[in-house]
Specification:
The chain has about 120 residues and is α+β, with helices and mostly antiparallel strands. The protein has one domain: Trna Endonuclease, Chain: A, domain 1. It is built from three helices and five strands, in the order H-E-E-E-H-H-E-E. The protein is globular. The relative contact order is 0.19.
Length: about 120
């Protein structure tokens, strides 16, 4: 792995750790980290009361293309939904769920933006 790739992965892991701590301080319980299937990935799965929350963590240091929020494209959303459906298929019953995003433009807890219900579910 190239040093730049390793640094990118390390920053992503730091962002996910910050996001998990942020959500836990707000009463959510992290139940799964980095759920992956071939078609997609979910960074964090959390419980908010009776609701299962699929969380996408986005870190973008540059705002050239709109920052972290703009990086959650329609294609990325579809991959998240596909992974979430695979996750739900493994449960005995489907709970209420939602899709949230934790957006960071730098690795700083004070810079976290928490967007709830970022993907509408049919």
């Amino acid at each position: 792995m190239a040093p730049a790739d390793a640094a990118h992965l390390a920053r992503g892991a730091q962002a996910e750790a910050l996001a998990a701590q942020f959500l836990e301080r707000r009463g959510l319980t992290i139940v799964t980290r980095n759920f992956r299937i071939r078609q997609g990935e979910i960074d964090l799965v959390a419980r908010d009361g009776d609701t299962l929350v699929f969380v996408e963590v986005r870190l973008r240091g540059r705002r050239d293309f709109g920052g972290a929020a703009a990086s959650v494209t329609a294609r990325k959303q579809q991959r998240i939904v596909t992974a979430a459906l695979a996750y739900l298929a493994r449960l005995p019953h489907e709970p209420a769920c939602r899709f949230d995003a934790i957006l960071l433009d730098r690795l700083d807890p004070a810079a976290i933006v928490w967007e709830r219900d970022v993907i509408a579910r049919d």
